[in-house]
Design brief:
By secondary structure, this protein is mainly β. The chain is globular and about 35 Å long.
Length: 66
């Protein structure tokens, strides 16, 4: 059975540039929102979880579209 939590932080999400960096930590979950600058109605939310990480070598993500 899947369980979901409501995304209450949506109002706190801000627009950032096309090149953004975040620290990578094994087991952490990140929320990524993408939007089309020309079509503001096109928004995608994706949940990323770091499942393997070798610094300066590779990162493996599990992802789910929300």
């Amino acid at each position: 059975k899947q369980e979901f939590q409501p995304l209450q932080e949506n109002s706190k999400l801000t627009e950032v540039g096309s090149s953004v960096a975040a620290p990578i930590k094994l087991g952490h979950i990140y929320l990524v929102r993408t939007a089309d600058k020309k079509d503001k109605s096109t928004v995608q939310l994706v949940k990323l979880m770091v499942i393997a990480y070798r610094p300066d070598e590779s990162v493996t993500l599990r992802w789910e579209s929300l």
